[in-house]
Amino acid sequence: MSDFHQNGNIAQFHNLRSRPLEELIYEIETYAQTRKITLVLPCLYSELEGPAMGNILDELSKVTYLHRIIIGLDRATEQQFRRARDFFSRLPQDHVVLWNDSPRMSELDAKLAEMGLAPQEQGKGKNMWTCMGYLISCADTSVMALHDCDIVTYKRDLLDRLVYPVVNPNFRYQLSKGYYPRIGDGKLNGRVTRLLVSPLLIALKRTIGDRDYIDYLRAFRYPLSGEFALRTSLLPDLRIPSDWGLEIGVLSEVWRNLGRHSVCQVEIADAYDHKHQQVSEEDAATGLNRMSMDICKAVFRKLAADGTVFTPNVFRALKATYYRVALDLIEFYDNDAKMNGLTIDRHREELTVELFANNIVEAGKVFLEKPNETPFVPNWSRVNAADPGIVGELRAAVAADNEEFAPMTF
After folding, report:
1. Would you say 59 and 155 are in contact if contact means Cβ atoms under 8 Å apart?
2. pTM higher than 0.90, yes or no?
């Protein structure tokens, strides 16, 4: 069943369990015979030792329609890369591990840096970008799916429901965005969406007026989810941020290239829980403190690119409006939690809102002081134009790493 949200007209597909999962899987398997599907898993080596990854692999081992799985591995030594290859060897699908810290990959990064095309910082954005480049070099996949590797409540139907809208050739959707209830351990989670993104978008609408882009973002039930699937024809022209603005950046790029009618969101889980970031009030470079800054800058840049003029006075008014809206929403969240037998810490949430309010102004200040800042990773079309051999070199480096360094049993 689907409907259209009152803001933005983004198609939503609800998980009502009215259709047997076996039927959905059979249909995906049929489509996947001619529309191959690749799953990308960007991860840190530390996540292999966490509580989620083992179960994720057990669930993925049941999936028969995947053409390939690409694992982007960050922060791993040579020994850890060997162990990672052994860890993922239980997967029955064709799979490959990209050791992003290998000497060969570092040499490739240096070559890109000389051309001014290297990602500016390490992290999930760079990891995803590298996996995208590898997938482009394979030139054999129609749909790319991506999800996080810290989901402790993972079930394989999360992937089934995520890929269906874009693998079905009778649908026009180019991107499928996952959403789910953010609850766990009896608490209402999803703090950055609830306490920053939702009130910020309302405050922006009140401060700068109606914008189609604001309505578009407001239409997403969980815009910061790390789960999405898209048709690979989009990959060469996708420009993504390398910081915590990644999820907002992907949605913004699809908005720029395709518009709202090519996008849908689908409920992919009844319950979802993963690793929770610390607020890190004392350290602006980590946790939700850093994340809130990056998200604000990503939204401001997109609005500016569409013609919105920002000034210090606009950001001060935005802060005041946001603060009032966010406090009102906390009362609603508290009522919602109590109605569903959940809890929130109102004191802690109000302190977090105060931090986010200050970060809105700080992000605005950075935006005004550095108008020429380019936080986006160059898209692969530009990289290919600069050096058509780069994607081939990337694929060769990955193959050489996997051939040279044999797995190491735990």
Report:
1. yes
2. yes
